[in-house]
Amino acid sequence: xxxxxxxxxxxxxxxxxxxxxxxxxxxxxxxxxxxxxxxxxxxxxxxxxxxxxxxxxxxxxxxxxxxxxxxxxxxxxxxxxxxxxxxxxxxxxxxxxxxxxxxxxxxxxxxxxxxxxxxxxxxxxxxxxxxxxxxxxxxxxxxxxxxxxxxxxxxxxxxxxxxxxxxxxxxxxxxxxxxxxxxxxxxxxxxxxxxxxxxxxxxxxxxxxxxxxxxxxxxxxxxxxxxxxxxxxxxxxxxxxxxxxxxxxxxxxxxxxxxxxxxxxxxxxxxxxxxxxxxxxxxxxxxxxxxxxxxxxxxxxxxxxxxxxxxxxxxxxxxxxxxxxxxxxxxxxxxxxxxxxxxxxxxxxxxxxxxxxxxxxxxxxxxxxxxxxxxxxxxxxxxxxxxxxxxxxxxxxxxxxxxxxxxxxxxxxxxxxxxxxxxxxxxxxxxxxxxxxxxxxxxxxxxxxxxxxxxxxxxxxxxxxxxxxxxxxxxxxxxxxxxxxxxxxxxxxxxxxxxxxxxxxxxxxxxxxxxxxxxxxxxxxxxxxxxxxxxxxxxxxxxxxxxxxxxxxxxxxxxxxxxxxxxxxxxxxxxxxxxxxxxxxxxxxxxxxxxxxxxxxxxxxxxxxxxxxxxxxxxxxxxxxxxxxxxxxxxxxxxxxxxxxxxxxxxxxxxxxxxxxxxxxxxxxxxxxxxxxxxxxxxxxxxxxxxxxxxxxxxxxxxxxxxxxxxxxxxxxxxxxxxxxxxxxxxxxxxxxxxxxxxxxxxxxxxxxxxxxxxxxxxxxxxxxxxxxxxxxxxxxxxxxxxxxxxxxxxxxxxxxxxxxxxxxxxxxxxxxxxxxxxxxxxxxxxxxxxxxxxxxxxxxxx
Length: 847
Prior knowledge:
By secondary structure, the protein is α/β, with parallel strands linked by helices. The longest helix has 25 residues, at about 720-745.
């Protein structure tokens, strides 16, 4: 902040006023109190500033001109602050002459809540100190100030003060205490500050004798980091504790080390993220755009999906096999910067910069490890050493993932740096809790016109992941002082999260509301758009919801649905505003989940459904081998076959027909292979077209058979795979435009142009998003995509919040894809009574 004095007009002697300002938003842990102190001091104002659980309150007294200048200056707050609401209250001038401006003690207001701050990457000023041999924080991995450092991951409760964080275990030394109370210092009231003398420490240990607690004679941080770098250079795999949990690390240019990491973690092919020292370093193996470079260097420091360089550069081939992108991030934590940056302090025997694999520190299907004792026990079989510190992590938080498409940022995983920043809702309503789906799980809590989405929790498929879900729910509800009037879950009867929600609702004595998967996706996108723009579309809206698996009320697996919604509708109207208008024609998944794991089965089903002979030269027929006759009979008799309308599964089948993937190691792998092939330079898209017909209920049915027929003919004719893949994606984009045109024509008196929204996991495909948006624009429609929450199931909980409130408002069941389960006659219980809730839940039975 500039130090030049603010010029104000002179006022008459004795002309004094007093104002109380109420600030809400991201106003704690972001340097707002020091900012207010410095501003008031420069203006000669008396008063005070305090944190409380509802936000920040400032009282100022002085001349009208200076008070006005103070209020106006709040329009340019500190970099991390977001003032969402500012209330001004007139007060009588204090009796007597108040002197000076004070930061006073924080307190908790019953029922009040403010936006919670996210973790922010170490700033350049702090990194400069870490690299300065003359600075007392030289090589100190925990340097931070009011503009950077941990926030969300260390918070136990509100208001945000050192006493309510994990740093309360580290009393400040005299030098740090002096910085903390010095208004001229950038660490003035920076809650996580510390130094090598009074703060957390880092140490290196071997898996044979891992030290979960600080050794009595802990060596200097430089020695521990140097030891870790030497081991990484030698090809070892390390567990490194970061901001929100542990990472598993190895040299990303060492193919043998990468292969060992994959074998130990049981992660055969799923992409691994890499960390580099600078944007320039990533250009050795990737081709970042200007927008992607800005994202890499942003204060959130997400993993950014970048297009690979043609030759792959120095990266090991096993980093992201079979796909055209690689996830890259810059260090968000000074410890990581010291690991990758090379010799910044003269203590490192291996001075060269490192490019490191940085993947979540967990066993397969388990949540990220964040507690030292559990980590050294569970990760020891996976690693050759530990780089551990003793700054406590209260909330585990994985890295965020983003990519750029159609000129905008699309969140893929909303976590560190973004969670738990609140999301503005269109309408007020009761407190409500949503638990998301099964994959890429997040939870969401709403109070008033605000919703707080959690960090990425992961797939809820094991007892450990269910424990993580329960811990996150408890923490969020307590932080925002919520008393949920209902719990919302997915309609799928087999999800552990749905079973958990049922037991939780019963324990709290509130209704359980179950909503259809794709309705929640559509509602999430509408809520995202309102939070981004502050308004809902002023004309009819069409939403395309495409993903892999969504349980439909008819017991099929949906995944390609279109919905219309009225202009300006808030999802709290007397009638449902998400009306289905188009759906993909179904096909069969032989063996159900087996077809998802082995897309060649889906490909054979597509051949069967389109009446195409099973030519033995086709890759899926060859993969079936001797099981082909069995699968043929299974499809003919529809035995153990699940019907689906899933666009994600259609992508899987096309990938198999093109010979790209016969089986998959992780969700979305086959679809990513299609995107990669379609994105090859020089690809010339083939011409394919879906068919549209009208059903008895006046909905559009989207036929896929003609696309598969032409596509297979091209495969048999030896057409280049990239041309076929590009043609398939172009056909999907054209189909969306054709549906928009036909649906728009069915609204007489309305403009022919629609607002068309794209949601669901399929729209993580950047090429598909870009082509669809371009074609919609050319047809006169306006497209919109997710900007704040992911289009995949990581954004599902936000839509569940909106639909859950809609159900509560109607006090009726079965509308807009939801199912109402009655409340307990005993009324709602407080969160303190959750101790009776079992952490484990069995899948719910269908009703």
